[in-house]
Design goal:
alpha/beta, Molybdenum Cofactor Biosythetic Enzyme, Chain A, Molybdopterin biosynthesis moea protein, domain 2, 5 domains
Length: 614
């Protein structure tokens, strides 16, 4: 659908340039993605009642079809966006704001403090969104499906309205026995009726790892992004140079452009040029020289540059300008000159598809004028905590039996150390209906969903069953022969025509950290076609006795070197390895891989290890 749209960011700090507006540009990208035919514009205003009203009126007079504001909906004295909006709209549309509120409350209780307003004036639909990037995008996602129909209604596009009603009627008729609801088919059984043995085969770690890698290979979506945002992303095409660099003969030194055949001796200083000056039309003859700066263009006729240090002054005018200089050391042809294309020649493959972009890559993109780069799209990741005992980290007075959600921030920041971001999807109680709704919402906006908790053998461990029964998911594995992390689950499902990857990680903090490092991060690397080996194995020397478990054991260890002259890696355990002791990850740099039933009395010995963090 084609329509005009304006995004208005309301913020004193962004307007005064003491903060960077993230919400407005993010909304513009979301509009572009969801409504490719929309014609969008952007404005930034302070938290001023009069300025907000004036801009809204201007856009309404220009018949802008959709006006989205972000910011100014809170409770501070300067938050006046809703009041300004109410003062000009002709018809309020409470259903839009009620939908945003209800869906936002499923994510955070803080949503009840939002005061958004939606309504119409003339031919414009005006909707207030929260000021945070996350909140603005979430609320836009909740209501985007009705925007085209709302615009049709406001503009009285009878044919479009008729078509929409016809489609809805047809859809309802076809799905009259499939009324959408969030009631889960899974029921919590009395503890006496629960399974006492797992229905899932215990598979080896290697097999589980390969399953994850194989199912993460099938995503090759490409997007074009500004080079400023391309660090650590993976190139989706070869970069071929269109022009040579440098595009002219450039001086390597501050000095004098000369003819090498003149040798040493006096030179008449013809003129001087700084880097960036136009030297076209200038020619250096025998016995002449031209001053040049580092990076500057070497004029025609000259075939060498003599650095300042190899010259001396003979004559200058009253203003201090050089008239004659002495070349003290005879130059050679092409001395201190970068020839055309000496750094980058034309029509060559500079970088290849699959390379990970570094700061140096970005510098060369800028040099060549490549302002946007095609990269493989990263997975949109959502992180959901589950458990009746879990509460917000901001909870001051814990109830008996409750704990703060340490897993959430631990995993969000572990992902961040590898360059990935994830959306916080909140905390959900062990209730089938609530879990189904949370997963349904997560699948709507994300490609990869990580859950913590709810995968063991308790009567309230419901994740696997809800995935199978309510979403027809395929559980690719539900138990792994490893420690910590035995109940780690990996599943896939189809949702709205897209494949979703689900990592259901154990609730113990160390188990979540270790399994995220071993399964999730390699999956995200594979998803974006990265060739970086995030699972790089190295041999670590162990100087103490270790006895293996029945499972592969991933022990948290410090990694040090034997000596400056002998870079052998030494692994030293960081104390108690129990899976609830998150402190064992604080002092650790690596994971020592102890095979099942490993036992040796020979000291020292060597085992495989990987780095825990990047």
């Amino acid at each position: 659908m084609s329509f005009s749209c304006a995004v208005i960011t309301v913020s004193d700090t962004c307007y005064n340039k003491t903060a960077i507006d993230k919400s407005g540009p993010a909304l513009l990208e979301a509009i572009k993605e969801n409504f490719p035919g929309a014609r969008s514009m952007y404005a930034l205003v302070p938290d001023s009642y009069d300025e907000i009203i004036n801009l809204l009126k201007t856009y309404c007079e220009q018949n802008i079809n959709l006006i989205l504001t972000t910011g100014g909906t809170g409770l501070s004295k300067r938050d006046v966006t809703p009041e300004a909006t109410k003062s000009i709209i002709e018809k309020e549309i409470p259903g839009i704001t009620q939908t945003m509120l209800l869906k936002s409350l499923e994510i955070t209780d803080m949503a009840m403090l939002s005061r958004a307003v939606a309504g119409s004036k003339n031919n414009s639909l005006i909707i207030n969104l929260p000021g945070s990037k996350k909140g603005a995008l979430e609320c836009f996602g909740f209501i985007k499906s009705i925007i085209p129909h709302a615009i049709d209604l406001i503009l009285d596009r009878k044919e479009n309205i008729k078509d929409t009603h016809s489609q809805i009627s047809k859809h309802n008729q076809e799905n009259k026995d499939l009324k959408p609801n969030t009631t889960s088919k899974v029921k919590i059984l009395p503890s006496a009726l629960r399974n006492r043995t797992s229905q899932y085969e215990m598979i080896s770690f290697d097999k589980a790892f390969n399953i994850v890698k194989d199912f993460s290979k099938n995503f090759h979506d490409i997007e074009e992004i500004p080079i400023e945002k391309s660090l650590d992303r993976v190139l989706a095409c070869n970069i071929i140079t269109n022009t040579p660099f440098p595009p002219f003969r450039a001086s390597i030194k501050d000095g004098y452009a000369v003819i090498a055949a003149d040798g040493a001796g006096e030179r008449v200083v013809k003129t001087g040029f700084a880097a960036g000056d136009d030297t076209s039309g200038l020619f250096v003859n025998l016995g002449e020289t031209v001053r040049v700066n580092t990076g500057g263009c070497v004029p025609e006729g000259a075939d060498a540059v003599v650095q300042v240090e190899d010259t001396s002054l003979i004559e200058a005018d009253e203003q201090g300008n050089e008239i004659k200089i002495m070349i003290n050391k005879a130059p050679i042809c092409n001395q201190d000159i970068r020839s055309i294309g000496s750094d980058i020649s034309k029509s060559t493959i500079l970088f290849r598809e699959g390379e990970t972009i570094s700061s140096a890559h970005i510098g060369i993109f800028a040099t060549l004028g490549h302002l946007k780069i095609k990269v493989y799209r990263r997975a949109r990741v959502g992180l959901l905590s589950t458990g009746n005992e879990i509460c917000s980290i901001k909870t001051e007075n814990l109830k008996p039996g409750h704990i703060r959600d340490s897993n959430k921030l631990t995993l969000l920041n572990l992902l961040k150390t590898f360059g990935y971001t994830a959306n916080d999807l909140g905390i959900i109680k062990d209730d089938p209906d609530l879990l189904k709704q949370a997963l349904q919402d997560a699948f709507t906006h994300h490609d990869v969903i990580i859950t913590t908790g709810g995968v063991s053998m308790g009567e309230y461990d419901l994740i696997k069953e809800i995935l199978k029964v309510d979403f027809d998911a395929t559980i690719l594995f539900g138990r792994v022969n490893m420690k910590p992390g035995k109940p780690t689950t990996f599943a896939t499902c189809q949702f709205n025509g897209s494949t979703k990857l689900i990592f259901a990680l154990p609730g113990n903090p160390v188990s979540g950290t270790v399994t995220c490092r071993l399964f999730v991060i390699p999956s995200l690397r594979t998803y974006e076609c990265s060739r970086n080996d995030t699972y790089h194995l190295f041999k670590a020397r162990v100087n103490v006795q270790i006895t293996g478990d029945d499972r592969w054991d991933f022990r948290r260890v410090k990694i040090s070197e034997l000596a400056a002259t002998n870079p052998v890696k030494i692994a030293t355990e960081v104390g108690n390895q129990i899976s609830s002791r998150l402190n064992s990850c604080v002092g650790a740099q690596g994971l020592l891989i102890v095979p099942a039933r490993f036992n040796t009395t020979n000291l020292p010995f060597f085992l495989d290890a990987i780095m825990l963090y990047r």
